[in-house]
Design goal:
Length: 226
């Protein structure tokens, strides 16, 4: 009986990811805000949120071997690493990269839309789940099966575009008892909602969530790689 010969070319590409950019900056949001962090931005995203500020990552990029990505992180000389996108989990080998970064001893976070299965992610990774509000235009893509998988190590983020989004997010937080599972973050959508207005709503309702603004945008606006 004949067998297929090994395919060296296939083996050589099996551990690669398409990368838009790797850069060192300050973490601008979530639990690790303010820490010097290496960002690994993967290319591609199946969602099209109307407020997206990283549409340049939808296409293009370059193929990187996972070992080379880890070596590049080592070269940057900090302990925090954030894997982002696009939607990083849209590339199947993303889980392998996250595992390798954890094995190398890094403090690793993953920024994901929550539209894809997070069960494939190493439990040492802090999963920052961006639940899509109606104002995003992509709320139908939320994978609610992810919610029971969340632990205290994880975080859930809502980008709030208007009062309707705020009320929707309040219901989701209560119905899924999110504050008992993990940190919950509310952010104002830039140019759509005044940050002070969202802050006033949270204070008035005594809502047990963390208000946040994107520190990197306050410092560098929308400059890529910052």
């Amino acid at each position: 009986m004949s067998t297929l010969a090994p395919n060296p070319a296939a083996a050589a590409t099996a551990d690669r990811l398409r990368i838009t950019e790797i850069f060192l900056s300050l973490q601008g949001e979530a639990r690790d805000a303010g820490w010097p962090t290496v960002f690994i931005r993967l290319t591609g995203c199946p969602l099209r949120c109307q407020y997206c500020d990283t549409a340049y990552a939808f296409h293009g990029g370059e193929w990187w071997n996972i070992n080379d990505i880890v070596r590049e992180v080592v070269r940057r000389g900090v302990r925090h690493v954030c894997v982002t996108g696009g939607e990083p989990l849209a590339q199947r080998r993303c889980a392998d990269l996250l595992y390798q970064l954890c094995e190398a001893g890094y403090h690793v976070s993953l920024e994901t839309s929550g539209a894809l299965d997070i069960s494939v992610v190493d439990e040492r990774v802090s999963r920052v789940l961006d639940l899509k509000t109606p104002g995003s235009g992509e709320d139908a893509r939320n994978r609610w099966e992810n919610i029971p998988l969340l632990t205290s190590h994880d975080q859930v983020k809502f980008v709030i575009c208007n009062r309707g989004d705020y009320e929707w997010a309040k219901v989701v937080v209560e119905e899924h008892r999110l504050v008992e599972r993990c940190d919950v973050l509310f952010s104002p959508s830039k140019s759509e909602l005044e940050a002070r207005e969202l802050a006033d709503w949270i204070v008035a309702d005594r809502l047990p969530v963390r208000f946040q603004m994107q520190l990197h945008k306050l410092l560098w606006n929308d400059e890529p790689g910052r």
